[in-house]
Each structure stands twice: as C-alpha cells, then as structure tokens.
Write a structure and sequence with these properties.
single chain, 332 residues, alpha/beta, five-stranded antiparallel sheet, 11 helices, 30% helix
Length: 332
C-alpha cells in the first residue's frame, strides 16, 4: 500500500525572465514502511519536491499535481493552516546542513522542548505546563534513541559547540519526536566524514526497522544509499526518469542516466589500473533557465536521436517505470 502517492507533480517558478518549469510531471509512489531513495545530481530538483510535499514553497511557485495523497489525505486540498497541522505529526523532514536550521542563539534543550508533543507530558502524568525535569527525561529518551549518550553535555550546548554529526542527530531526534508516518531525509550526510555518514545511515535504517517509519531519502550519491533503499527513483532536471525496486534498478537498469549513475559506483573488489580515469557522464546539468525541450537528458545522452526532442511518456514494465524513447529492454 502506498503511503505517499504523487502523480504528475509540476512546479513552475515565476521569475523576471518569465515562468520556468523546474519540475516536470514527476511521479513518486512510496510504499508504507519502506525506504525510498530519490537520487539525482545536485540541481535536479530533489529538494523542490520535498518542499512541495511539505507545503514550504514560496508565493512565486505554482505547484500542480494530478494526485498528491498522504494515505487517505489529499494534500492538494489542504489549506496552509491545515498543512501545518500535519507537519511533524504525519510528515517530518531532516534538512541538510543542520547548523543552518538550528537556532544559533538557543541551547539544544530549549529547541528540542519546542517540538515535544503534548502526549509525552500526558504519559508522564504531568500538566500542560510541564516541569523542566520532566521535559529533560523526554529529551534524554529521544537523544538516546538516535545514539547520543552524553545527553547532559549536548542539551546544554549551542549548535556551534557541537560537531556536524551530533547536530544532524539532534535534528533527527527533533524530527521523530512525534513519531511521524513519513520522514524525509534531504541529503542528511552532506559534507560529513565517512564514519559519521555510516552512523547516520545505520540510524535511519534502525528507525525504519524498529519503528516502521517510512523514509524518503534524497541524495546525489547513488552508491551511498542504493544498498539502504527498498525502492529507488532517479530524477534528472526535474523529470523522474526511472523508478523501481532495488533489484530492478541495480540488476536491470533501462534508462541511460541510471546506467551512467551505476557506472560511477566504485567497486573495490575489482582491479583498477593505477591512475585510471573514473567514469563520468559527459557534460553538466543545465541551468533552470536553459533547459532543453523534450527529454532533458538529450544533450548528454549517448542514445539521443531526433525523437528525443519530444517529451517521453512514462511506461510501466511490471512495476519498473521508465521515461525514455529508447530504453534498454531485456539486458542485464
């Protein structure tokens, strides 16, 4: 059963040069209780989709979708105030660069106290104006859940006094305080060292396995999240180009962009010539105001032909969804 069902999501941004379509008919189907990876290069529109789901878009955005359901709730029909009510309770987000979203003038204790749900106070048989010690017990429990043991030091610290990894764990603790049904992790390991990245990914995996939290994991690193995800969608320049299960994407990639992303994964068990050149897809992602017509991968695609100036339709091959005029069918 799909927890989040998005069909043909489009985002147009009004600029001084006119209207620019940055997201073009993107489709996401996130199964309840799964980890769904949304992968694409920086600038592909992953964060824009996350903000559209949360309703955090600006006034100059025009967001349209044929369908945008969270369970049985139609997000398209919710007002801004109604959307705010489900934030934190039904959907939470972990932003990249955690220090940018934590208040630098407040200690961690004060910031976490603001997100504590009322039900925590009820569980501890205290009134609405709960005491500081009762709040501390609830915050300590959340911090331990995300792997922070020195809770006394952390809660009395300002964000700039903590490492990037600890700040990210604090953000995760704040995001799961209300046990949301859907957790959106927007590149949660950006600019972190490998050990901290592994800790964050293990933490997200445990949240999914132990608490059945559905996770939408956004990343520009295909290799880092591929083994963690049950389902994977690839996005390029605002177009979802391929989507399927982990096995379908890794074993039978159909889209040239997916095949190129898989080639960038380093295989340490294979011999590589000394100083050999790593594989990269030729060219670079175009700016939003210079997007090509039709298939947006066309100028960089090794299989591009004249037909590619027309926008390809999404085709479903037994749950494996592909948007390409010339997909690779029947090849491993």
């Amino acid at each position: 059963m799909a927890l989040l069902d998005i069909r043909n999501l489009s985002i147009d941004i009004i600029t001084a040069q006119g209207k620019i379509r940055v997201i073009d008919k993107a489709t996401l189907n996130i199964v309840d209780g799964s980890i769904h990876g949304l992968v694409g290069e920086s600038g592909s529109g992953k964060s824009l989709i996350a903000k559209a789901i949360l309703g955090l878009h600006n006034e100059n955005w025009i967001v349209t979708a044929d369908r945008m359901f969270l369970g049985c709730t139609d997000l398209n029909k919710l007002s801004f105030r109604e959307r705010r009510k489900i934030m934190g309770k039904e959907i939470s987000i972990i932003f990249q660069n955690p220090r940018s979203y934590l208040d630098p003038s407040k200690r961690i204790f004060d910031q976490m106290r603001e997100v504590l749900p009322n039900k925590i106070a009820k569980k501890r048989f205290i009134k609405r104006m709960a005491s500081k010690s009762a709040h501390y017990l609830a915050i300590k429990e959340l911090l331990h859940k995300v792997g922070i043991q020195n809770d006394k030091v952390v809660v009395n610290s300002f964000p700039h006094e903590l490492s990037e990894g600890i700040c990210q764990k604090v953000m995760i603790a704040m995001a799961i305080a209300n046990n949301p049904r859907l957790l959106i992790a927007d590149e949660p390991t950006t600019s972190m060292e490998a050990v901290t990245q592994a800790q964050i990914f293990r933490l997200l995996y445990k949240l999914n396995q132990l608490h059945n939290t559905t996770i939408l994991l956004l990343s520009n690193n295909f290799g880092s999240i591929s083994n963690l995800s049950d389902y994977i969608s690839l996005i390029y320049c605002g177009q979802t180009v391929e989507s399927g299960s982990y096995k379908q994407i890794l074993k039978s990639p159909m889209h040239p962009y997916t095949q190129a992303m898989i080639k960038t994964i380093l295989a340490f068990d294979e011999e590589v010539d000394h100083k050999s050149q790593l594989y990269t897809l030729p060219g670079s992602i175009p700016p939003a105001n210079q997007l090509p017509i039709g298939c947006r991968l066309g100028p960089r695609c090794p299989k591009a032909q004249r037909t590619c100036v027309m926008n390809p339709e999404a085709v479903n091959y037994k749950g494996h969804i592909i948007r390409c005029h010339f997909p690779t069918l029947g090849e491993k």
